Amino acid sequence: MSCNPSFGGIGKGVLVREVDAMDGLCGRMADLGGVQFRILNRSKGPAVHGPRAQVDRVIYKRNMLQTLQTYAGLDIKAGSVADILLDRSTELDEQALKRLASQDSTLATSSATVVGVRLESGEIIRARKVVITTGTFLGGEIHIGLKAFPSGRKGEAASIGLSKSLKDAGFRLGRMKTGTPPRLDGLTIDYSRMPKQLGDMPVSPFSFIHDSVPHANDQVVCYQTHTTPAVHDMIRANFDQSIHIRETIRGPRYCPSLESKVKRFSEKESHLIWLEPEGLPEHTSTVYPNGISNTMPEDIQQKFLRMIPGLENVVMTQPGYGVEYDHVDPRELKRTLETKRVTGLYMAGQINGTTGYEEAAAQGLLAGANAGLAAVHSKAECESQEAPQLTLDRSDGYLGVLIDDLITRGVNEPYRVFTARSEYRLSSRANNADLRLTRRAAALGLVRDSARLARLDTVEADMAHAQAMLEQVVHLPHIWEAQMGGSRRVVRDGVRKSALDMIRKGFLSEDLWAGARDPENVPPEHIPKARKLAGGPEISAIVPAWADVPLDIRQRVVTEAMYHGHLRQLSAEANTFKREESMRLPADIDYSKVRVLSHEEVDKLSIVRPDTFGAAKRIDGITPGGILALLKYVRQNRAAQSA
Q: What is residue 449's DSSP assignment?
């Protein structure tokens, strides 16, 4: 964790659950080091709930390092990579490579194969597969006011040689930027006038193998404060003191810097700030002020901080700063995150234009899994696609949405996941990632933990038992009306209905927060509605045995029932989507020969080189007529080849 000491959030929390479902580590480590747990969006439906945890840096680092150092089959070597080593299948001179790097097209087939890396020390490490996860270090440059110096994170060197190596290989590189807020000494903050933000009780762990977390009963408290008009005036008066706010390089739209907020939302007199401890009191007194990432000179930062309520005497322990860094156009990638340009080279994280640990962890898992799977199979098997791969489409989960957006649309700003990006968010929820992905990952050898698989078996059996329990309670409509005390009218159509049917129609409910305290971040008027899944009397009042079903199982079953109609429709849409995804496009197709396609369509298809017709349809600017012409062209070519 290099910046914000937290994991999860809206959309991002689902990604962490998906990583955990495939036996990735970050969710488990966040549980062990978590010092405050909350479900964001609790006043809305389960489809948009966002698990989030504030994490102690010391505990997280200790547990992660210990786990990696004892991980079977893993060797760790410290060093800085200066160059990727390539074996070229075709001879391309330097001018040809520069032309490839500058033009908006993607090679139909790779021009080289990776054979290893060279460290800055001169040591060469041979490898059939290489995964690059450079974060913000690729050509990284830190900005504080008008000062700029090479670095990917304060106090650590940037990766300059690797950036040049990628350019030399023909990759198109772009620049992006991000930032981090100043760090504060929590002992110098006056919390007495600030609203508290407490963690949830009971907590909701990220990992499906955890029932609770070590620090559930000693969670830290976060506090809320805000900027003031005086702060905004000082920022405006010093715009000329920061080189980072230039608009030529795009920063994250969904967590903008304080300068960007003041500039873009000039009518607002204040912006919220969440004061988040970076760990337990015995480990640190440092506080992360979420919401005021900035790149102002250090003296300006210290001045405006003391204009914020509660921070009048605050001590800044580290100034905020911005980082500019290189990234590769993600349209250079296959769905496995292998590059189209270089066989055996994979990329994950900020190098692909994304932002956030959660997006990076998810990509790292997918790229690492595919690199490992390809490494144990022959080149012929990989080229013929007979070797197993971990590929996810949009209907499989948020990781599928993330990958599809990157490789078909590219990026012009740091990409982050949130629920609105997924058209399948009702079926890709935080509470069913294990049901969606664990067995699939196990089939590829990613999940080998027998306890995790046994737990999944138990969950599925318990859900089936609970659903059967509801299906067995059947009454005619007038009996249901009597059961509910006459509070709701049921259509008297003479058809017997089960308790499960009544939940699906919204007549029976489940307390979503059973046993939990009401969180302070949900307005009191929203709590009664937010507590209920569905509506009407509680299920246990009608089906007494329901109270004996574990809470997690009850919530899963009722959520599925509540979204039943929508899920049926989504399932039909997903089947249509998967049929389109199964229609493959040749990798070497010459789009300029497809009549009817406009110049714009030819250009965009040549850049992305989609692997399926479904992916081609999702490219911005590709018309239905263009898709039909492409389909006709491919069918005619295949018929001619088979004749």
A: -
Q: In the block, which residue shows the tokens 């000062």?
A: 147
* Alpha helical stretches, state H, 177-276: 229-237, 258-264
**Mean pLDDT, 10 residues at a time, over the chain (643 residues)?**
87 97 97 96 89 96 96 93 86 55 53 93 95 94 93 87 92 92 98 94 94 95 97 95 71 77 92 97 96 96 98 97 95 95 96 94 98 86 78 95 95 92 94 97 95 97 97 93 82 91 89 59 53 71 92 93 92 86 86 90 91 89 88 87 76
CA distances from 242 to 103, 169, 586 (A): 32, 34, 48
Structure tokens at 108: 């139909």
Q: Which residue is listed with tokens 């010391």? A: 58
The rounded distance, in Å, linking the Cα atoms of 4 and 278 is 8
Torsion of CA 104, 107, 110, 116, to 10 degrees: 0
Instruction: State in Å, rounded, how far the first CA of the chain is from the last one.
Output: 58
How many CA atoms are closer than 13 Å to the CA of 489, on its beta-carbon side?
3
Buried b (16+ CB within 10 A) or exposed e, 158-170: bbbbbbebbbebb
The pLDDT, as a whole number, for residue 284 is 96
Cα-based distances in Å from 439 to 14, 198, 278, 429 = 17, 36, 36, 17
Predicted TM-score (pTM) of this structure: 0.90
- 8 Å CB contact between 370 and 336: yes
Tokens (6 digits) for 226: 């805000």
Q: Are 147 and 322 in contact (CB under 8 A)?
A: no
The C-alpha atoms of residue 630 and residue 616 are separated, in whole angstroms, by 9
| Rg, the chain, Cα only | 27
Question: Rounded distance, CA 237 to CA 307, Å?
Answer: 15
Q: Using CA atoms, how far apart are residues 419 and 74, in angstroms rounded to an integer?
A: 34
Q: How far is CA 334 from CA 115, 338, 609, in A?
A: 19, 5, 9
pLDDT tens-digit map of 159-200: 989 999 999 999 989 999 999 999 999 999 999 999 999 999
CA–CA gap between residue 373 and residue 125 (Å, rounded):
20
Task: Say what the pLDDT of residue 107 is.
Answer: 53
Residues 113/344, Cβ–Cβ less than 8 Å: yes
Q: Give dist(CA 539, CA 503) in Å, integer.
A: 8
Angle made by CA atoms 203, 209, 211, in degrees to the nearest 5: 30
d(CA 439, CA 224): 42
Q: How far apart are CA 269 and CA 47, in angstroms?
A: 33
Give every strand in the sheet of 50-55, ordered side by side: 6-8, 50-55, 34-40
Please tell me the distance from the alpha carbon of residue 46 to that of residue 620, in angstroms, as a whole number.
31
What does each C-alpha distance from 174 to 241, 282, 627 come to in angstroms?
Answer: 25, 42, 30
Provide the CA 557 distance to its chain's centre, in angstroms: 25
Distance CA 24, CA 363 (A): 11
Question: Is the previous residue joined to 202 through a cis bond, with omega within 30 degrees of 0?
Answer: yes
Torsional sign, CA 85, 90, 91, 95: negative
Query: Within 10 A of 422 (CB to CB), how many other CB atoms are there?
Result: 22
Tell me how crowded residue 492 is: count the other CB atoms within 10 A of its CB: 11
Task: State the alpha helices, DSSP H only, in 6-93.
Answer: 12-21, 26-33, 57-69
CB atoms within 10 A of CB 515: 8
8 Å CB contact between 173 and 162: no
Write out the two tokens for 465.
Answer: 């038992």
Cα separation, 114 vs 89, whole angstroms: 11
Helix (H, G, I), strand (E, B) or coil at 618: coil
